[in-house]
């Protein structure tokens, strides 16, 4: 797909992997809409890349509908969707306090919060975006659009306390092929990236010794991933017309341990 002049939507684009992808798409001439709840950062990035910011909560139909309406009013119907919006938490399924022996379990509200954003939110944006893509005429190669989702290596190597996060990201991986098959007759491709440990805002607040230990756990290269490396793979998935229905780890060959 030729990015120049093509409308794109990136969710979770105000920072981290989404911001790197929005910048990379804009650098190739795409017209980028930034979906996020961080208005100040989102507006600043939109001004930087000549895009449009849409304050969107991916867990709410009305908010997502309004975001797509604003993006399409500015740039036209998108042919590109990159889903980077996501959250995480950590809690054992059930655990015993070392202090007093009391027992607690993973809050179902906390579990559902992660599922609603990471999994249902991703599907919500896919469903609404591809319904719009179906209104477009196909390009010369028969393609109408392309989607990249963000899962995590935790989808396959979930650690202690990651039940909700791993379930949400495993769901993203699990729905990639069926959605690609659903949309294959309409010329819309779907792929998913499973990032390892990346230098995102979540990691920036971690102590240096923690980041050093995480970097040392990566076989090669022994460092945290650069968001631009994620963006590079996302653009290749969007660009290459034979890339479809795939889930690809981007992790320096790491396999996550117990904790």
Low-confidence stretches: none
* Secondary-structure element series: EHEHEHEEEHEHEHHHE
Question: Span from first to last CA?
Answer: 40 Å
- Looking across the biggest beta sheet, what order are the strands in? 3-2-1-4-7-8-9
Give the integer mean of the pLDDT values.
Answer: 96
How many distinct beta strands?
9
- Structural class of the secondary structure composition? alpha/beta
Summed up, the domain count is: 1
What is the name of the CATH class? Alpha Beta
Name given to the CATH homologous superfamily: NAD(P)-binding Rossmann-like Domain
How would you characterize the largest beta sheet? Answer: 7 strands, parallel
Strand content: 15-25%
* Range of helix content: 40-55%
CATH fold field value: Rossmann fold
């Amino acid at each position: 797909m030729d990015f120049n002049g093509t409308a794109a939507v990136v969710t979770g684009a105000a920072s981290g992997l989404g911001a790197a992808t929005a910048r990379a798409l804009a650098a190739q001439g795409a017209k980028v809409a930034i979906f996020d709840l961080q208005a100040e950062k989102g507006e600043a990035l939109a001004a930087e890349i000549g895009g449009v910011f849409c304050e969107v909560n991916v867990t709410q139909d009305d908010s997502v509908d309004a975001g797509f309406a604003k993006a399409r009013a500015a740039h036209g119907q998108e042919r590109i969707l990159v889903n980077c919006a996501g959250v995480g938490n950590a809690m054992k399924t059930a655990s015993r306090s070392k202090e007093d022996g009391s027992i607690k379990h993973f809050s179902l509200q906390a579990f559902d919060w992660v599922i609603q954003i990471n999994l249902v939110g991703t599907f919500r944006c896919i469903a609404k975006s591809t319904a719009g893509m179906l209104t477009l005429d196909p390009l010369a190669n028969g393609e109408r659009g392309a989607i990249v989702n963000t899962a995590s290596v935790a989808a396959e190597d979930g650690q202690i306390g990651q039940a909700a996060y791993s379930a949400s990201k495993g769901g993203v991986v699990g729905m990639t092929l069926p959605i690609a098959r659903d949309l294959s007759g309409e010329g819309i491709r779907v792929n998913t990236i499973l990032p390892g440990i990346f230098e995102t805002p979540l990691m920036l607040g971690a102590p240096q010794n923690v980041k050093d230990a995480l970097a040392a756990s990566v076989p090669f290269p022994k460092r945290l991933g650069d968001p631009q490396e994620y963006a590079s793979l996302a653009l290749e998935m969007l660009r290459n017309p034979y890339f479809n229905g795939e889930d690809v780890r981007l992790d320096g060959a790491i396999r996550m341990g117990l904790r």
